[in-house]
């Protein structure tokens, strides 16, 4: 499926999706800081170009097209070869849709991310015009990912709650019908603005950013207080003072 997805991204509809996702991911990763960033999947597509983190790597499964990019790592998303809490930014373009265990892949990302680290995900929205068309019987499938394999944003939010992720930002896009030619995509381009305004959750694809939150330590119990000085009645001070003088004078 990764090869099919890579090939589909070169079709008119794929280039339409790719251009939209590139703009969204650039905006989501532009202000992410740290020392290590990694993109998991589609190594021939650079979604880290707008980020200024010095060390970048592109991880992909053995069946994905390798390309000629430097910094490539061959691994499965469910088993990342990184130390715990060693990565500052992870970008996953449609990664959860083709891996064998998407929840485990997201769990691995949570493991390798630093506290306050960021993950950016893109995917197809099954609850869109494109998803509806692909679900109708008798029609030829045009998407590289079948609807049952698509991970909806609502499902992602549930997984975020189970892990230590907090949803930061997200957006839907690509509201035109699933057309096979560039000419028809251009004719329907007016739906991009209308969909973003009237049915924002119906876009064909989405881009979502989440932050790994780690609860800080705090003291449990009563607050520290300075010891109070005991008040002594005047009448009780004299006998004590006299007794101390008697002991000193012998």
UniProtKB/TrEMBL annotation:
This protein's record includes keyword Transferase: yes
Family matches, as Pfam families: Methyltransf_11 (PF08241)
Keywords recorded for this protein, A-Z: Methyltransferase, Transferase
Biological processes per GO annotation: methylation
Name of the protein described by the UniProt record: Class I SAM-dependent methyltransferase
Organism of this sequence: Castellaniella denitrificans
InterPro entries per record: Methyltransf_11, SAM-dependent_MTases_sf
UniProt key word Transcription: no
GO molecular function: methyltransferase activity
Domain Methyltransferase type, first and last residues per copy: 73-121
């Amino acid at each position: 499926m990764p090869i099919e997805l890579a090939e589909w991204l070169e079709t008119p509809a794929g280039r339409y999706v790719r251009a939209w996702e590139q703009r969204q991911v650039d905006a989501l990763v532009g202000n992410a800081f740290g020392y290590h960033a990694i993109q998991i999947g589609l190594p021939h597509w650079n979604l880290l170009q707008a980020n200024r983190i010095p060390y970048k790597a592109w991880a992909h499964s053995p069946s994905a097209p390798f390309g000629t990019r430097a910094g490539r790592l061959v691994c499965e998303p469910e088993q990342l070869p990184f130390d715990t809490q060693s990565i500052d930014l992870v970008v996953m373009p449609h990664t959860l849709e083709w891996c064998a265990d998407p929840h485990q892949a997201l769990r691995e990302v949570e493991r390798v991310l630093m506290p306050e680290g960021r993950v950016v995900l893109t995917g197809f929205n099954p609850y869109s015009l494109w998803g509806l068309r692909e679900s109708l019987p008798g029609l030829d499938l045009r998407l590289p990912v079948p609807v049952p394999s698509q991970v909806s944003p609502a499902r992602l939010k549930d997984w975020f709650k189970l892990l230590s992720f907090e949803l930061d930002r997200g957006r839907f896009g690509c509201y035109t019908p699933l057309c096979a030619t560039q000419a028809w995509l251009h004719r329907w381009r007016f739906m991009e603005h209308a969909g973003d305004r009237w049915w924002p959750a119906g876009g064909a694809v989405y881009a979502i950013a989440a932050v790994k939150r780690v609860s800080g330590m705090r003291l449990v119990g009563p607050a520290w207080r300075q010891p109070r000085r005991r008040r002594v009645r005047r009448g009780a001070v004299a006998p004590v003072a006299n007794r101390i003088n008697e002991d000193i004078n012998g």
